[in-house]
Amino acid sequence: MTWFWQVARRYPWAVLGVVALITVAAAFGAARIRVVTDIREFFPQGDPLVATYREVDEKFGGMEYIMVALAAKDVFAPETLQKLDQLTRALQEVPGVRSVRSLTNIEEIRGAEGAIEVAPLVEELPRTPEEIEAFRRRVLSDDFYAGNFVSAQGRTALVMVQVAEGADPVEVSAAVRRVAQEFEGPERVALAGSPTLNELLTKAIYQDLRRLFPLSAALVSLVLYLAFRTARGVALPLATVLLSVVWTLGLMGFLGAPFSQASAMLPPLLVSVGSAYGIHVLSRYGEERRLGLDRHQALERTIASVGLAVFLAAATTMAGFAANGFTKIIRLREFGYLTAFGVGVAFLISVVFIPTLLLLLPDRPVERHRRSANRAVRGFLSWVEHLIARRKRWVALVALLLLALAGFGLPRLTTESDFINFFKPGSEPRRAADLVTAEFGGAQTVEIVVKGDLQDPEVLRRIDRFQEDLKQIKVISKPFSIVDVLKRTNQVMHEGDPAYYTVPDSREAVAQYLLLLSMSGTDLLDRVITFDYGEAKIQARVEGTSSAVRRQMITAVNQAIQRNFGPEMEVTVTGTPVLFESISEMIITSQIQSLALSLVAIYLLISLLTRSWFSSLLCMVPVVVTIWINFSLMGWLGIPLDVVSVLIASVAVGIGIDYSVHVFSRFREELLAGKPPLEAARATVLTVGEAVVYNALAVFAGFALLLWSEFRPVQYFGGLTALTMVVSMAGALLILPALLAVVYTRWPAAVGAGAPTLREEAGRALRGG
């Protein structure tokens, strides 16, 4: 560790120059960061599910739809129909829109002297009461329109806006919203669909970044002031975290890594986590100055002693975050690597940049390095020290009882991946989705593509039976395919006789109808069948629901496929519900992998420097307790694992182990000074305990601030992570010293009580022998 001190001492101005150059370069990189929220962007490149989704999207003219709902007392009122028509025409002019369909421009299939004509349902809007009533009866009695473009009660109309291929769905949604808002009042206008969801997610991410990052810096500054009571004590650790944020954002920009629902937390997270290293360096520096050392001697002693603990704390935190780099969810992978990088930067700046500034800034009198007189913190540490000395058994008993009670929440833990749940119940996005779901069966769609001879009536009948099976699945409604088009065509070619609303009996009739429809000048066929009549798409609306129900729905769809098509026909299922369910499965795998890897990596790091497997296990106890409490609380509170909350465990491991490392390092130092284990544990709490408390408070404050995020999962993440910091701190200051005192007293050989200290091991390793 003394190498860092030598660099700061010999080349202080060079250190400042290098830091300044890197920061300027990083600022240019940070300006290039974009935001992505689409579910497809969370999958690794070349993922077969995403490839299938995009292939179907291209073959059938796009699956990106913006649903504009117009809610009124009566959709068929003349003024409402007029507004609906005007809205439809205005949306057709929006750049990036391929097509717009609503009740006022939807086409119907008509028979005309042995031919087929596809013409608008209404040539002219009805005006008289008689015309309006006739139009109402006609629309509401036809399942082709009722439930698709107007609700069954006639109170809500739906405008389907298809995004053009190559257009940015988020930008198109924002433009559609601006146009739609002009038609608000007295009718309610609401937007739903994947493009709209991504638009609102993007907007909320920017709002979070603009609001939470400065607030987190302000809160951490307050904690730093409470810890040191000086401007320098605030400015130096704060500079550390701000530089780490800028450097990390610069790397994001240069690598092309975007902000997402997960990585948007990165700036406030680094502010909270990175402040810890500066706190420990300044705290030990002040302690050495109070012993009478000048600043050169104090800095050298600080880096040589606490520097190793800071290094190990940073290394274990980096390992915890980097464990997310093995997940298949690409956005979580980026988050893990980038956060690990940011933590490494914060460590490096703390042990090089802060000493450099302390050398260059005017020296302060020794009395200004006095210990901060915070009675609450000192009183808390004295109470903890008393418990360790007199109440160790009660501490163990209460801890075990709490763990046992908490554990009953584990079986309640669930997963969730639908991004609509990022918004709070009652928010506009949720209200819009709920409206479309209640009136039209859902804002999401599942797409089933059937390959085969689609001019064969038997194949078409299989599709028809399959659609009837789909209608029996609780969360699926309004399946639509080429079969519906051909059945309607067959009916109109037989003078509208309902008895002919069936699949045509012969191959010739099917071929004739397809030919007539293709010559009608409409793109109706393009949306449901390929030009070679080899593939057909069945589209059905799906209610937004829980991961468990969605999983049951997909299983039921696959069972219906097996019943109706068998192994001889190729059938593919895609759509946003399928992608969401795949992410749910990845979340579970990711949680297991990241947690296991982080625990193993951190254990190995500690073992490498302590040379005692048993001591390393003792250091892990507070972390394991924290993880247990976290998952149990999630189960009790009904908080699911999602693409954000899945990160909590690795964060708790990576940060929580810091406190154990600092406590264990100081404990070994006190042992080396000749104190018996119990006295060493008590001295540890009263010395390093203050820095640990302020460290935990800074991290707690930064994460608790996320409770004011626009996103529910981020709120859960902030609240739970803040709580885990308190649990980790309590475990490190209460459980770990008590364990160390007992174990080192009764079984000194098992823990290698005579082994070199962490400082000696690291110093020897860094010197190369």
Question: Care to describe what's here?
Answer:
The chain has 25 helices and 10 strands. The strands form 3 sheets. Strands 2-5-1-6 form a 4-stranded antiparallel β-sheet, with helices on both faces. Strands 8-9-7-10 form a 4-stranded antiparallel β-sheet, with helices on both faces. Strand 3 and strand 4 form a beta hairpin. 50% of the residues are buried.
Overall 3D form: elongated
> Counting H and I runs of at least 4 residues, what is the number of helices?
25
Mean pLDDT figure: 86
Query: Which structural class matches the secondary elements?
Result: alpha+beta
What are the segments in which pLDDT stays under 50 over at least 5 consecutive residues? 753-769
* N- to C-terminal distance: 14 Å
Strand arrangement, major sheet: 2-5-1-6
Helix content: 55-70%
Number of strands: 10
Let me know the largest β-sheet. 4 strands, antiparallel
Q: Over the alpha carbons, how many angstroms does the gyration radius reach?
A: 32 Å
Share in β-strands: 5-15%
